[in-house]
Amino acid sequence: MSLVFLRVWLLLAPVAAFYLPGVAPHEYLDNEKVNKLSSTKTQLPYDYYSLPFCRPAEVVNKMENLGEVLHGSVIKNSAYDISMGKIEFRVLCKRTLEPAEATLLHTRIRQDYRVHMIMDNLPAATKMIRELPDGQTIVMYDRGYPLGFVGSAERQGSVPGGAYLHNHLRFVLKYHKDAAFDGARIVGFEVEPLSVKHKYKGAWSDDASQLQLLTLPVGHDSPPLRADRKRCGARGGLRVRREATGPVVYTYDVKWEPSDVKWASRWDLYLYMGDDQIHWFSIINSLAIVLLLTGIVAMIMMRTLRRDVSRYNSPEDKDDLAEATGPSPAPPAACSPTLLFVFSCYHPSSSSGGLLTATLLTFMLMGVPAGYCASHTYKALKGTEWKLVTVLTATLYPGAIAATLKCLIGQQSSGAIPFGTMVVLLLMWFGVSAWYMVGAFNVLMGGILPFGAIFIELFFIMTSVWLQRFYYVFGFLALVLLILIITCAEISIVLCYFQLCNEDYNWWWRAFLTSGSSGLYLFGYSIMYFHSQLEIDGFVPTLMYFTYMAVFSTLFFLVTGTIGFYSCQKFVWAIYAAIKVD
């Protein structure tokens, strides 16, 4: 059988992919990629080659889009070489650790960093066996593989508390063959990391056939074997100590397994989300809230409001009506193109950062209607500093985000945005309004229902972002977002009507803050999530987490507040337009 030659690329970041049924698969392999080191304890991604690993003759950066830079997922090539269908064991290289390198490795291992690879747009994964409540077992994938492990009494061959480096990788590549095409298609990419304290006899050689290795890796739960298949002893793992020097031998082997999984179904194990009953329960609960609010709004419009209008004996003229309500601007549509893009065609196997790039471009283009609506609405409310409002709309929110990125730059994280990229982002703008609080109790009460509509789905989204899990239930997300929009509109209308009944005509900021206050609950939820679900260590990672959640909560506040404001504006215009004017 002819061999198709593979060159393996290394990259250390979560990988997303764009996948549409019918896209032509590859019957040959050409470039495995790896992107970055990531950790659930520090949340700071680092470049793969920031650690003492084997490098190819020339390290080539492959930046595909702006989203990859923002995500810290710049692809780089690696020294791994794999041949299609060929089972082999290879020596990658030998590195002599300097004290600083050993200390860095020791720290990263204790911080639970993981390495992420991709091959044929499939991310490397470690296999997990999960038992279901009915007693059945299923196979699931966890993205990437751990950089190392901390020894414990339960792990054979390790010293409790010691840091061990995974210096041997066992690639298990699954392929599918069919009479409909020539060659084979890759449908699985598993990695089994091992820690082996290699020993060899004679002179060192990078050629495994010439190097007389005295150890052979057999598994992470067992000590390595000598070449004569006898145990090497209980201390077979490669332990990394702080400020210690010594050689590290990196090796890998490749195993090919035939599979009945077709190319179109190869992502199923990655995207398995478990039981979806909790999603349906959340949606049904939110729909009950929507129906209740809809009934209240209908009662106001059909009974109370009709009676109030009929008893209204002192109508204002149309000029005063326009002065009170302002003209009707275009509805908020900045999120629509991005959401349409997500729900129609997003898939985790697309080019890394593609969705983020499309989102940023969408927001940049939507800056034009954002500035127009902001200044137009401000002038309609008799504001005089409309130019200042336009400038703040374009600069306030992105300026606040740019200020928070300094901590990442100071930590030399690959997730930090380079200066050139920051210049590009400065050209993009978002809708921003000032913060002005009136009627704090009503405002806080108004944010409970919109947040309640999304908090179940929010848990899965945050788990995907902060614990590096896949999220692929966009159908549920679309329903939840629709419920959120309806809830924000209706709760703002109800409270706005009660405010007008109390002869308080300053409804605009109250309407904005009523639904927008759900962003405050979102940030409060992020605090609870931090203490209950995450194990983040260190001041800078903690600061980064809360900074990002504050940025996201602010954006959520702006989006939900805008929905509430425009809904109330339409409502006020409708009820006052029904009043007869003499």
Automatic annotation (TrEMBL):
Membrane topology designation: Multi-pass membrane protein
Species this chain originates from: Emiliania huxleyi (strain CCMP1516)
Highest taxon of the lineage: Eukaryota
One protein family per Pfam: EMP70
One GO cellular component term: membrane
Record-annotated membrane-spanning stretches: 278-301, 353-372, 388-409, 416-437, 443-463, 470-495, 507-530, 542-566
Protein name (database record): Transmembrane 9 superfamily member
UniProt KW keywords: Membrane, Signal, Transmembrane, Transmembrane helix
Family: Belongs to the nonaspanin (TM9SF) (TC 9.A.2) family.
